Amino acid sequence: MLEALFRPQSVAVVGASQDRSKIGNIILRNIIASGYRGKLYPINPRAGEIEGLKAFPAVSALGKGAVDLAVVAVPAPSVLEVARDCGEAGVKALVVISAGFKETGKEGLEREKELVAICRQYGMRLLGPNCVGVMDTHTPLNASFAAGFPHRGEIAFISQSGAMLVAILDWSVREGIGFSQFVSMGNKADLDETDLIEAAARDPHTKVILCYLEDIREGQRFLEVAERVTREKPVVVLKSGVSEAGAKAASSHTGALAGSNIAYDAAFRQAGVIRVTTMRELFDLAVVFARQPVPRGRRVAVVTNAGGPGIVTADSVERQGLEMARFSRETAEELRSRLPREASIFNPVDVLGDARVDRFQVAIEKVLADENVDGVLVLTCPTAVSDPEGVAKVMAELHARFPHKPMLGVFMGGETMAGGVEVLNRAGIPCFTFPELAVGALAGLVRYGAIQARPPKEEVPAYPDVRPGEVRRILERARQERRRALLSSEGAAVASAYGIPVAPIKLAQRAAEAVTIAAEYGYPVVLKVASPDILHKTDIGGVRMGLKTPEEIRQAFWDVMESATRHFPRANLYGVEVQKMYPKGVELIVGMTRDLQFGPLLAFGLGGIYVNLLKDVAFRLSWGLGLREVEAMIRETKAYDLLRGFRGEKPCDLKAVVDVVGRVARLVTDFPEIVELDINPVFAYPEGAVAVDVKITIG
Amino acid sequence: MGKLYFVGAAGSGKTAVALGLALHLRDRGVAVRYFKPVGNPPGAAGTGGDRDASLMQAVLALPFSPEELAPLTLGNYYLSTYRDHQACRRLVEAAYAKVSDGAEALLIDGAARPWAMAALGLDAFSLAREWKATLVYVLRPVSDRSLDEALFLAGCAREMGVKVAGVIFNDVPRVLLAKADGLYREILADRGLETLGVIPHQVELSAPTVAEFYEVLGGEILTGEDKLGNVVEDVLVGAMTLESALAYFRRSANKVVITGGDRTEIALAALETDIAALILTGGIYPDMKVIVRAAEKGVPVILVHHDTYTVINRLAEVSRVIRPGDERAISLAKEVVAAHCALDRLVSLAIEAHEA
């Protein structure tokens, strides 16, 4: 897939120039310097020869099918004409370096739309516009204007920021980190992160896929593809724009509204994507994934020649969700017999400050051999007798003997460690200066192990008893009345049509009607003001509870109306809704907001008036959501502890709660026009659960 | 010739009712004319004279200029701009004589308030008494208190010797519909006033369009010039956190969102929802991405130099104006009068002269 982009048989550089300061010339020279072995054509209407190659006036002058990939670096107004020419000439992929598209305004937007239309018309794929270009070190091809070409390696890096890409490239060359592919996506007019992740997944030279993203263009497709890819190869994403300020910067950078950070978290988690928050982590993980095996479990052995750093490491291991391994008796006995009496033979293994290479050798070998150990961290501090290079060589030998267990080095120090670090680098053992980063990298490997081993995608429950026709009628009526917010009685009817048990509620437009409804339900009842414009009814005196007589109802009806108009003089009042009073259960909230990128984002947590204070909420996308995952979501919250029966209370009906969440997921999947939904509270009882207040907004 | 004088507060829908009735009169072969002694000045972006007069002139194809149909303009300093108060009065009377000449029914439209130009003796009640016009009070009720306004002013008019036919409730919110037709009607009847219509709230007739906002606020249209006809049903201020913005904006449709020009993310959130126009304040030219997104979605963006607070204050002046080319609103005005008013009664009031 995308062969023409990464492994073209022939490349044309449109806008190639004899002037060495021009982008077109730099790209041409980059392609030559990368050792590209296919055919290469400079395209320029005037020049006869550029960088020793014969130039052609247009791609079409080469004949149909002569060019697989065209790299375009001409001024924006000429790009459309070039694209048409390329299309006529049967070019398969375009990389448009030129800026002057959507990022510049309305005119640019129109130009970009047309560029995409031309590419679609001719079946060309398009990278960019407004990008740095594309590189593949195995082809090899450097079709970019970046300075330099990365070492050959197994990491694919896909970046939404061109500047980020060139900076990483420069850094990686010095660090000796190799890459398989480097892609700058630019405006993502056609090819986006999902296409490129899919391509990297199929690239035999790529082991790890790294992304720097500011937004995701097609959430659903991304989820589908990433869920599949992450079962084969790790995908690590640095998604920026997390903070309010960052989101602002990202939105002005890409022109897309950053979807909610919570939705991104849920999406990455459900698709098996590892999300990192710093660039350091991004590349630490990349290196570790490229060079070390995925461990079977989370038990870590630490071998050190210094007590303090060993303890710091042990702390970090626990904090980052790993475990300090407990050695078998045999291992402990071997270590006891072969290390000095003062050495600590329990984890962390302290071979002491006067240790030479032999003690490291014994300790590392024994812990690697222990079946209770899944991975090893080796710490060295500079001492009078330490021999970092010697330790590194031992590590290299042992890593070769135990290739299925990851081993990482922490060589704490500067100049004295350089030789050892060099040896480890050559042996493919990632080395860090401080323990936390090494533990973080190991934790990443462990996490990926769990991701890879996760059970296959769950079945989404079917719920054959749902009644979409009823829901459609209610939504249509609201739309006819030009309302976006449903009344509580309508919300309850919608939920009920999807099999969610609700506390009965009806609209009364006059006080007398309210009395009739109350008689039907039986006293006591609740009265709530009915208005799509009033969100927080309790706050404005719009709710009256525990009404026991017709007279109380009549009085409450007008009290509620007065209150409502006093607070919201222009609110559209429908009257009052009468609801049957239910006994209080464990108060839960089940909510949904439709994320712009990923669709329905469900929330579950502790309900009632403290929702905003306690923030005891777990989130999942409705995408691919099965009952196992719903239960996992519920278990994440403190509400779960309440449901299980806190301090001798009777446990609640967990199955009924799972059912409510599952049915809400189905409802919002069936009706894309439902953009917000909140059931607060849902009362959970030892038997069953009931939705008391259902708020729905339609788009 | 009969004369009906429509009086009511600004935005009560006097003109729409007069328009609807005028079309029915014309259908019945009555030579109907329209006259508005005291017109409105144009808004910040507007030019020309009174828009109601222009509308009626165009729809009824009246052989008079809008300046003849609405001879005076109610400026804030009208006592100074019309230095010669006697000339003022002569101007109105001349126009009135010319427009009413040969008419079988004359519909007179009131100013923004019935007492406008009382200093010159040109308030609605004085003129109605002088011209022996029958007064119809158009009331847009928002609560029980609104009824007081109609009762009190009708009482004043009678004290001054004006014949008052009754009240038309217009743009009635759902919750008051039953009440207007019941309790309000009874109270009016007790005072000898007829309920001549109860017209429910109609978004298409009462909601202003983006053009009306632009006329009041002025400013620069950055994109979406062709979408100024979008109907505006709600006004929201984008001053919340980004996190809550989307849910907030989603709750209302066909809205104008007012926010600072530098609040890129709020503007983008608003553009993801059903929006009629974006008004950016503070004179801060927005990020290019906002304009691009708005252009993609076909949403007008208006950049104004006032701050958000000032803009909100000025919104009180925005109300729906039916424009001559707005066939849908014009025919709706006619339908509504037939469906919800005592049409025959209004017609006979309009053509029968009286000697009050």
UniProtKB/TrEMBL annotation, chain A:
UniProt entry tagged with the keyword ATP-binding: yes
Keywords (A to Z) from UniProt: ATP-binding, Ligase, Nucleotide-binding
GO molecular function: acetate-CoA ligase (ADP-forming) activity; ATP binding; metal ion binding
One Pfam family here: ATP-grasp_5
ATP-grasp domain mapped to chain residues: 492-528
InterPro entries, alphabetized: AcCoA-synth-alpha (IPR014089), Acyl-CoA_Synth/Transferase (IPR051538), ATP-grasp (IPR011761), ATP_grasp_subdomain_1 (IPR013815), CoA-bd (IPR003781), Ligase_CoA_dom (IPR043938), NAD(P)-bd_dom_sf (IPR036291), Succ_CoA_lig_flav_dom (IPR032875)
Protein name per Swiss-Prot or TrEMBL: CoA-binding protein
Lineage, opening ranks: Bacteria, Bacillati, Bacillota, Clostridia, Thermoanaerobacterales
Automatic annotation (TrEMBL), chain B:
Entries under Gene3D superfamilies matching the protein: HprK N-terminal domain-like, P-loop containing nucleotide triphosphate hydrolases
InterPro entries: DRTGG, P-loop_NTPase, Phos_Acetyltrans/Butyryltrans, Ser_kin/Pase_Hpr-like_N_sf
Residues in DRTGG domain copies: 214-317
PANTHER family xrefs: PHOSPHATE ACETYLTRANSFERASE
Protein known as: DRTGG domain-containing protein
Organism listed in the record: Ammonifex thiophilus
